[in-house]
Amino acid sequence: MECTIDWGGPDGMLFVARTGSGHVAAMDGAPEGGGNNLAPRPMEMMLTGAGGCAAYDVVLILKRGRHAVTGCRVKLSAERAETDPKVFTRIHFDFTVSGRNLPQAAVERAVRLSHDKYCSASAILAKTADITHAVTVLDQAEPETPSQ
């Protein structure tokens, strides 16, 4: 895996990342840090990466278990250390997973497997942060068929 980060120049703190898979992402700093608030902060991108990694795992695990998963949202909230390096000290993942006849236990198992076994981003962040999870399952009933 590779990526390249280029600084946008002397008028701010905008950086552009180019990934080995051919994608581009911008990062910027807060105005008080010399940035212009044109893009997410690098640490926000790190938190986003952990959320994406975990959500990917949860959906994949549920699909492999032949569950009718139709949606997955994870909202993350984090706290950082007061002093440098301002690492994450607490991260809470709040999953909302929807599907048809989706068992709560299956979703909780998928979240647990992601955290304990599969999500590399969470494993790295768990070195400094206390990671917690909440799970909500929304049942989407089968669509009604019109009566004849």
UniProtKB/TrEMBL annotation:
Coiled coil: none
SUPFAM superfamilies in alphabetical order: OsmC-like
Residue ranges crossing the lipid bilayer per the database entry: none
Top-rank lineage group of the source organism: Bacteria
PANTHER family: PROTEIN YHFA
Protein name per Swiss-Prot or TrEMBL: Peroxiredoxin
